[in-house]
Design goal:
This protein is an all-alpha fold. 75% of the residues lie in helices and 0% in strands.
Length: 255
């Protein structure tokens, strides 16, 4: 069908108007249904309370991406640490805690971020095969244990009034004992191979870094024998005196 030029112009104008009206309507719908920081946080927190951790993560991440400078976004970044942790996303939980600490060093709840960092590494367990064969964890390099110990130590020392300080301290004691046992294990390994300087260094590290751990008794014994093998009688005598003052009986030969 042939249309005159005025008719074609009128038809084009009609379609332009129709498209404009449709766009305005769609835009109005988007504005009406648009999420707000408050609604997103409420939705995320509801999912968290319902143990829908993946749903909570999705909403929290949308909130922090869409409204990064709001108070709700700051709280969401803190809540995300827990949501990742409960969802089994340990690396994401640690990254979220590190980011929160870096961006909010004076936040009143930064102690929680440090505590969660410690908890994530504290709960890294041996795999199923290690558990089945009852692997001796005192003989494993305790990399995550050291990280956990450091995070809990920050809570205890820098935030002593924190609600998490008592639990952090109890976990530190457990980690202290395990870390000291590992240092003694390595010291004994070196001693049996006549590497007395290396053995003495590891034994001394156990004593100095993990004071109060039961394994420091064995560390002192190893240190005494190392000094004797290295022909350092004065140091051996001093260490023997420390041993006697703490444990009240003569030191035995290192095993």
């Amino acid at each position: 069908m042939f249309l005159s030029r005025p008719a074609r112009a009128g038809l084009v104008a009609f379609f332009v108007l129709l498209a404009t009206l449709s766009g305005c309507h769609a835009r109005r719908d988007r504005l009406t249904n648009r999420d707000t920081p408050e609604s997103l946080y409420k939705k995320a927190h509801k999912s968290l309370d319902s143990y829908d951790f993946n749903g909570a993560i999705k909403s929290y991440e949308k909130l922090t991406a869409s409204f990064p400078f709001t108070g709700e976004a700051r709280q969401a970044r803190l809540d995300l640490i827990y949501a990742y942790y409960r969802a089994g996303e340990k690396e994401s939980a640690t990254d979220a805690a590190d980011t929160f600490i870096r961006e909010n060093p004076t936040h009143p709840r930064v102690d929680y971020a440090y505590y969660m960092k410690g908890l994530v590494d504290f709960e890294r367990t041996p795999n199923a095969i290690e558990s089945l064969f009852r692997a001796d964890l005192t003989q494993r390099p305790p990399t995550t244990a050291r990280k956990s110990f450091a995070a809990f130590k920050t809570v205890v020392e820098q935030y002593p009034k924190s609600a998490y300080a008592h639990d952090a301290l109890q976990r530190m004691i457990y980690l202290r004992d395990r870390l000291a046992e590992y240092e003694v294990h390595v010291a004994r390994f070196y001693f049996k191979r006549n590497a007395y300087i290396a053995a003495a260094q590891r034994a001394r590290a156990a004593i100095e870094q993990y004071d109060g751990a039961p394994a420091t008794r064995d560390a002192l014994q190893i240190l005494i024998d190392c000094y004797e093998r290295l022909n350092l009688p004065q140091l051996a005598a001093q260490t023997r005196a420390v041993y006697g003052a703490n444990f009240g009986d003569p030191a035995r030969a290192a095993r």
